[in-house]
């Protein structure tokens, strides 16, 4: 195959303050899963860099749960659809699709025989439904709730019991199958966020925004008591049982997680994550000997009960669209930035990652690049930063008069920044020249010889400037039929590539700027968003709004390779070559992907 996906470094779960997220566990103990955008993310519990992504929902997803057999996953989205798909085949073949309710699915539960599914959430006429996984036939009625149902669970032992937790502050208890209403518990004083039966079926617990964790009899639904007084000092958003039903993990907005002894109803271990809002805990899973929680940042914490003060491991990354990417080829490290200003660095081979330290951008990072040991970034906050890749720490700030769009540099001594109203020249991190323009630049590229600057703009032109000393002088323009979205000089300085909103990638030969591609490079089906040259200057990679990646050959302009749906359901925001045969790509879906490229002909 000309292009093979080597690795996907998956996004983190998206989070919202005050709202729980559901983390699903693999009955075989190997994987865990969660949702992000239109995707379901499956990650290896032992090696979370090993991941798989299911991208067949047409609407944003909220929950996914393995069947007890492990052969299927049921996932629910904002439209009220539940898709049941297999875990055996790489293609995740769809078994069936149903719409049990008319609004967003919030939680899903399977019966232990993997035959029936309960789905709950928002709706108009009802807030939940139970159905068979293959035919969709009704297997019970969920009723007597007046608001959104946040959580549902079914006991693993017979006779089956079903519990629901609702925003009307009640717990519903049902007998089945078919499931019929039995009773309501009204002890909570705020939203019920989670209900979960113990694996042995003897107990059911409910957690709420009122800081309470109630304990119910798993067979009768009778209230047996509660944990703590209350269990936490903030809302409790998720709970997870140990496999032997003797302990319970709870997480809270009070920035703690706790392990409870469910025989003595006492707290055994408390994990304190910090004092800032970002340390709120909104999801958890206890699977085998592994305990994980999810912070408000989306970070996944691996807990160590023997050392509760420090997680064994913290999986970092992005849960917002990745807007920029650059490479440190000397260290085989990838730097990515997202729409909220977070910058993360990744070991390209292992996926191990971390965050830049210090005060970063306050909003979206527009572009970034590395020269030497400096990371240069620009953001919507009108700031250009020069930071250290040695210490991975933010550094010097430079404020500009209008929003910077893109940066180009050959070394730290000279940096060119395209802003919405001007082109800025910097020497050694200081502004030395500003060229005001009457068009809106979108992109910029500095020639390796440092004498030419190409600026792509919304006026459908590429503006070519001569750089003399610190001064820019426009010498020619190249006409496009739509706004120019990116421009890049080749590393050897012999070529200029430009792309635009009309799906074209164009190749110009220097010094004449004769077009060599002659409109042949028009295989994308939507706007081209980004370009990157291979280190040997023989190939160009492009990313597009059509979710695909194009590979274009300078030596044979009629030879093209298209990676369709490189980032399914998400536009590609940046591409970069790790070497002449390895490409990295990022997109709106917050995932980082590594591709092996075989050049043919």
From TrEMBL:
One of its GO terms (molecular function) is actin filament binding. Pfam families: WD40. GO terms for biological process: actin filament depolymerization; locomotion; regulation of actin filament depolymerization; regulation of actin filament polymerization. SMART domains: WD40. Keywords: Repeat, WD repeat. GO terms for cellular component: cortical actin cytoskeleton. WD repeats lie at residues 54-95, 185-226, 229-270, 315-356, 524-562. InterPro entries: Quinoprotein_ADH-like_sf, WD40/YVTN_repeat-like_dom_sf, WD40_repeat_CS, WD40_repeat_dom_sf, WD40_rpt. SUPFAM superfamilies: Quinoprotein alcohol dehydrogenase-like, WD40 repeat-like. It comes from the Eukaryota. Belongs to the WD repeat AIP1 family. This is Actin-interacting protein 1.
